[in-house]
Amino acid sequence: MDVYARPANNSALKEKPADSKDENEILPPDHLNGVKMEMDGHLNKEFHQEVFLGKEMEEFEEDSEPRKNRKKLMVIFSKVDINNDKKISAKEMQRWIMEKTDEHFQEAVEENKMHFRAVDPDGDGHVSWDEYKIKFLASKGFNEKEIAEKIKNNEELKIDEETQEVLDNLKDRWYQADNPPPDLLLNEEEFLSFLHPEHSRGMLKFMVKEIIRDLDQDGDKKLTLSEFISLPVGTVENQQAQDIDDDWVKDRRKEFEEVIDANHDGIVTMEELEEYMDPMNEYNALNEAKQMIAVADENQNHHLELEEILKYSEYFTGSKLMDYARNVHEEF
């Protein structure tokens, strides 16, 4: 099967520059917690940790002391194991995944309240496209007062091509988030859909269309395996870059064949991708639970014991625990 280059965001191959605080507040984030794919079509590498740890994920990233991390993991295990039989079933893991995903949803809602206030300067409960545009351009280094004056007087704005392209894409997203009747004014709920499309079925469909548009090479609005695994544009200059490319293909092939292509016909439709992207899909959560169990289920009993989770802690938490077996017996 041929694998060829496609135009794409190269975020998998390079460090992303840190955005300014203002820009983070008003730009739709590429990364959505608890969603399997980034907005630019890359796989979410932290998905397993996000749906297992929820808001506690940062604690494991910041605290590298194995003993403390073991204790935290043991507490999580006891919370997932609701029938206290010392093992986690797929149904118990499914319930936990849904609960942690909902945590991310609530976190996005709370953050949105602050972000909405930042772009609603007159506090009237609605943000116009022009108000947002002024704040966005100010975050890009333009003079806010000058931009506001030019927009008020319908004067031409001198904007570089790259910024204009971003603005055009944002305006498309703004239109989609604007519930009927369309007035280009977003209230707080609509602004949440604009920043976090996973909160709105209509916006989720729009995000799927954008991803398929970026990956679809023959224009049939469906994805073949070769389209899904084709590498981002970039020359492989050394072994490290080659390894990244190899991992890209391997990970995406596995996800396409085992998860996204639900009927295994070699084609991913918009409907299949939408179901895959929906973070509150209970069927997906159960499949995810079974996959997570399979990774660490060494005794093949289709459940997870504490020792198995501790041994495979890096998969569940991003934190590798040493001497897991000896320490778990000490702490019991």
TrEMBL record:
UniProt keyword Glycoprotein, yes or no: yes
Stretches with biased composition (Basic and acidic residues): 13-24
Chief place where the protein resides: Golgi
Annotated region (Disordered), positions in chain: 1-34
Ranges where the EF-hand domain occurs: 68-103, 107-142, 203-238, 248-283
Gene Ontology terms for molecular function: calcium ion binding
Location(s) in or outside the cell: Golgi apparatus lumen
SMART domains the record matches: EFh
Alphabetical keyword list: Calcium, Glycoprotein, Golgi apparatus, Metal-binding, Repeat, Signal
UniProt record similarity statement: Belongs to the CREC family.
Protein's recorded name: 45 kDa calcium-binding protein
Organism whose genome encodes this protein: Cuculus canorus
